Fold this sequence. Notes:
Elements: H1 3-26, H2 30-38, H3 41-47, H4 58-71
Helix pairs in contact: 1-2, 1-4
Amino acid sequence: MTAQKRMEFLKLKLTEELVAILVEETGCAISAAFDALYTSQTYAKLSDPNTKLYIQSAGYVYSILEEELQHMKHCDLFREK
Length: 81
């Protein structure tokens, strides 16, 4: 497996886990969870091979994502808590 394919595989697995956590934690629809993730700076960093964020645990990356989403003005996933 090439390094690029490994990164893409790990990013895909993390994406699946992050969306599942978002749905479980917030009760949002899967589509809303994907939208929130894909429009986040966290996902941009996850997609950048230089950050190596894709090799971190889902829990760690989720903690970064959660912090970001709580401060995003257009994201209301955490406002009901």
